[in-house]
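re: ur question from yesterday

yeah so i grabbed the chain u mentioned. its 369 aa long if i counted rite. heres the sequnce exactly as i have it in my notes:
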Amino acid sequence: MEKAWLILPGLLLLMGGGEWLVRGASRFASLLGVPPVVIGLSVVAFGTSAPELAVSVLSAYRGQPDIAVGNVVGSNIVNVLLILGLSAVVAPLTVSIRLIKIEVPMMIGTALLFFALGYDGKITRADGALLVGIFAAYLVWMARTARSEPILEEELEEVGAIPRNGWTYLKLGGLIVAGLGGLVLGSEWLIQGAVATARALGVSELVIGLTVVAIGTSLPELATSVIASLRGERDISVGNVVGSNIFNILSVLGFSSLVAPEGMAVAPAVLRFDAPVMIAVSLACFPVFFNGFQIKRWEGALFALYYVAYTVYLILNSSHHDALDEYTFAMQYFVIPLTVIALVLTLAFAWNRQYLKPKRISRREGSRS
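ran it thru and got these structure tokens back, copy pasting raw so excuse formatting
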């Protein structure tokens, strides 16, 4: 408990680092002619995932696979439900077509790949090499396609207002570095305080990884996405979350598996519950994103409430509470089925509005002419 005081300065440093990173990255994107969504998927996403990489690699090297795996799976759940949810509550988030066509399917694919590789109870070094190889190929592909994304007129006006000289590039580079440094150091302080507190309460390492560490290492994404939403950089906000989830599976889990002496064991509880939840929330993004290419405030609030429900389950399960059976029954047979039905209907309505309705209108106009 002696490190609990680090929580508050860690949070403050995270907020400052998120502000510096968003400001520097968004302006650098404009100067280089790179669309903000691509910056959100790459520089910002990878930078804010640095705490996950550091924590998971160190945990795997020390022989603590539950913290390493729990951190990755828990962070991906936090990213979608809590971070996207709170960011959308702050301001409705715009979703680019690129995310729906490319990155969201890839996020879903990497979640399924984790489940497939870990189904035998272990992520081996060979599995880790495969993940890192896919990650390297993804980076190369992204670099080649970055400039094909359109840049909005208001972004071009912003470019004209920024002087193009060495001092500008140096200042923006300094903001990005300072932001990343603040995020990493703030996360480290927060995790030290939170983990010390959690262990003093007798919570298991897996639950610590799925909750305290996952939330702690995801706070950079939370700070960055919420600040980006407040500043109107909403492509960065959504791209940051989706890119971080891809990064977490391919890079964080991949490198962690490579440094682990004998690979990383995947706990049966993860395969039975947490990994399916991660896959489900990834799948839920598609109909929500596709519905008007926007995450509305009520959808964000629903995401956040689902994260609260997930956390309540973890607490009840870890403490073997008497209410666990009733809670599980209500979630499995009422809440989850109703949510699935709502998501299917949302996707059907969005598909009808985007594709079927325009086709019917064009056919009517063609028949009249």
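noticed a couple things. Residues 151-160 have pLDDT under 50 and may be disordered. also The chain has 13 helices and four strands.
anyway ttyl
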